[in-house]
Amino acid sequence: MPDEDLVFYTLKQAGEMGASYAEARLHSHDTRHILIRNGTVIGVERSISKGLGLRVIVDGALGYASTNKLTRESLHNLAERAIRIARSSSRLIRKPIEFSEARLGRVDYRVSPAKPLDSLGIDEKIKRLQDYWSIVNNSVHKAKIPVFFLMYNEDVEEKIVATSDSGYIHSVIPRIGLFYNIVVMDPGRGSIQRWRQLGASGGLEWLDKFSLEEELRREVGVYERILYEAVSPPRDRVDVVVGSEIVGLIVHESCGHPSEADRILGREAAQAGKSFIKPGMIGERIGSEHVTVVDDPTIPGGYGYYLYDDEAVPARPKYLYHRGLINEHLHNRWTAKIYGVESNGSARAMDYRSEPIIRMSNTYFKPGDHSFEELIEDIRHGVYIKSYMEWNIDDERWSQRYIGLEAYLIEGGELKQLIRNPVLEITTKSFYSAIDAVGKDLRFYAGTCGKGEPAQGVPVWLGGPDVRLRNIRLGVAPK
Amino acid sequence: MKDTLLDTANKIVGKAVEAGFDESMVLVEDKRESMLKIANSEPSVIQFWDSVKLKIYLAKNKRIITVEVDASDPSMLDKPFEELINYAGRIMESPFYAPIPEPVEVKPLPELVDDRIIEYMGDPSSLGELVIEAAHRERIDYVAGMIDLSHREKALVTSRDGEYYEESTGMTAYLRAFAGEDGSGQWSACSTKLRRDKLEEMAETAAKYAFDSRNRVDIEPGVYDIVFSPMIMGNLIGYIARMASAFSVFMGMSIFMKAKPGEKVASEKLTLIDDPHNTELPNSTSFDDEGIPTKPKRVIETGVLKTLLHNTKTASKMNTVSTGNAGWISPHPWNLVIPGGDYSLKELISDVRRGLLINNNWYTRLQNHVEGIFSTITRDALFLIENGRVTKPVKKIRIADTFPNLLKNISAIGGRTYDIRWWEVRWPTRIPYILARNIHTSKHII
Fold first, then answer.
1. Do A245 and A140 belong to one domain?
2. What is the ipTM, given to two decimal places?
3. B144/A269 CB distance under 8 A
């Protein structure tokens, strides 16, 4: 059967078998990886995944079944299975599951790369990746680089989603990604490690936009200097400029995640946890008036780009925190029904095996009007933390910790010595409340966000400008 | 199914050789799995998966290519083979290349399949009912968690005429209970069998921790002796096991870049075993992805690093032999075991003048894998221990220390082990409560 027919056949079966709602998704990934260590290719990986996931509501219970056996018989069995397991669990349901009404799309869209993924041969791609090793290895003077591991990824994700209430979305989104791990080492001084991810939707044009040649040269030089020159962070209270890379992570962790309505309602309580945001907290103050955080799937090039979610609901920007107030949550059609709102199109599934759940997309701190020089010019004694390695946050998204990797003292409005492992350990409200100025340069960083059971990793962008916090006491990492 | 899977694998190996590859291995996995997810003491979703997955290893002139096909249509492989043989001519020799091993006889493991798991996969709701009811025997408010049942068949065929097949079942479950404003507790269970007793004990333990941890008070961060529950130590020891993969050492992701087998890396109290032959633990298997027979091995024995985990490639690079832990590229553990020691939980606690008892954690992250600098944040029940007694539940705190310190400061091992596996404990882990001294903790400052 053609792909579209597989979807409609399964949907029809589910309807005939008694589902009050059904949604079928044919979902594929076509992926290529290149693994390189210190300039030599360890191996090349190719993966293909294609299968169909069916979600149904039966007697108030939600069932999800998937298979990659795409025959008529197998899909009939799949529908039977989804209906049967949902029905069997319905006797334990106290609050029947219902979905909100929604204006569903009937759309076909695709991202067209400026430079298609196949516009370079694999040998040309490898050559470019090998050049990164030369740059890294030539950027140190005294220290050694025992490891520079790099993984290059290309993925084309294609989905056909159809719902029993007439939603229909066909999408094709290519993405490109890079991970790298650098270890800079001097046996007498220890080591510095940098693990980083880059990614975007589109094609090979991003290899140019990442400007990795220039960035690797710069950062490896800095890591070597940290080994030999960095001093301990100040222990007294200081003003802190938090770099955009960390701001992006902070808004993802302490605004995006706690704003997921399924988490607020306890659906992820045993996995990703709950939220400090409780029902009824819309409008409560969480930070200064400089704080606005947006989740926007529609940003072109975004690693978390999409135009319709996996329930066929149109995507749009969501202002999660607005001028310091808790403003809007991330919803799917289930949470929207409970909250009495419209879904804002936040349901995503990683692959055919995965049920759609509420996810972030491209989440960012809205930029302000300060240049970097203006952010630091009146800081008499402070710290600028540009990048990080270690971080974590509690399961209600309140207490969080970030350890700086590249960080500097600020004295008299100027950047001075490098400092080693400064720790920003702070509550969500304290962080957003201490912000008194916001940079104007918005930068995005790539991540793979994990949630759900089985865990689903989906591509996201995390973004923001540099922001300034006043009067913060920093910690220091253990040795 | 055995013949079908072996036949599929053989055909693909043949196709690979026909396409021009020197060597090939094909691993076919046919898996059915169902999962009941619980939230607010009722099912939130019930899921079922039925899929066949092909993993293909290809080598030509020492160039390595791997393929994963999570799709059942064999014609999907035609185009990739054309593409991949083309790749082989354009990439370089892999520094990790080693020839596919000669086939050897593999002794099957007994008792890997429990028909009751297969039976319950069709309707796990009564198991959900069991854990919800068992937890609510305690005065708690609600529970969340999941029960996962799986039935897997795997077949491996190599171009050196190796043929292997295995069937297994597995159960993994965890439950988190909530009581009052701030009480919560979490526990987990795993087995190759359907173990209602383990599910029930899991629910009761989570609920007791939740009830006992209500009305928490703040404590100052500092240096504490800590009694780690199997849940949290299972998470931390998982990081040690992952760093014991020789591939992690090559990738700069391991504290064992600075240690060699034979060197002391932990307290003499600690022995860590990778045990693929423990037929109660659900990752048990008789052969690895290269067809090497698996075996139990001491990764750390009385504090000394005995071996890294190897496949034939990493072993060849380090001039040793495979430990039966392939992964074609990256070796990995199967099941982790820390053998029980001499102490009851009560005795571990009574050995602490001022310290903490920690039920659970999440978000372990490292500043530097080579140095082992990490922190992790507690979740669920956390208690202050004063003068050998648990005195009060306390609020969340971070452990912020280094893995080398943690390993060296282990001072006593509990007697009873628990079979643990959940979101934050990737590999099935049999592990007791463990006491470690002088562990640094941290907390948000504002």
1. no
2. 0.96
3. yes
